Amino acid sequence: MAAEYAYKYDYGYSNAAPAQPLEREKRKQKTEQQINVNKVQQSEAAQGKKATLQLMRAAAFLCVALAMFAVACNSFITKDKAKNRLEAANEKLVICQAENKELGAKLTALKSVENIDKFAVEKLGLVKVTPENEIYLGTDKGNRVVLARNAE
């Protein structure tokens, strides 16, 4: 009796049919897992790209801010140097104006006729021409030269 029903219980045949759906399920699960892993990797890569992009933007902003700070500092330094040069020039101008006033006063004092005569006689050793010390020289061409005789 056991031999009669032995063909019905072919374990290889009965196990093969249900194994295929299990393998399909396993393959399906593996592909779904692989798809999920790929999605996770893609989302991580996208997040990494976003983070890198944000970092690059922050670095660019910092570089621009640093450049603007450097330009501002340079302009302040240039302004300070120009201000110092202007103050020095103004001080020199005040000194030159004071010297100009002094020299103008001296020139005004020297412009008078008495001072010019006094300077000519005392400093330069010139002699005033008077009728007693005049000498007339005649030339062939009719020109006259007037010389003063020394009192010596």
| Protein structure class | mainly alpha
**How many beta-strand elements?**
2
Across the major sheet, the strand order is 1-2
Q: Sheet with the most strands?
A: 2 strands, antiparallel
By DSSP (H or I, 4+ residues per run), the number of helices equals 2
Plain-language structure description:
The protein is mainly α and 152 residues long. The chain is built from two helices and two strands, in the order ααββ. Strand 1 (134-138) and strand 2 form a beta hairpin. The longest helix has 100 residues, at 11-110. The termini are far apart. The model has no long low-confidence stretch (mean pLDDT 81).
Q: Outline of this structure?
A:
The protein is mainly α and 152 residues long. Helix content is 72%, strand content 7%.
Provide the fold topology.
Blueprint: H1 11-110, H2 113-122, E1 134-138, E2 144-148
Antiparallel strand pairs: 1-2
Observed structural traits:
152 residues; 7% strand; mainly alpha; 2 helices; two-stranded antiparallel ribbon
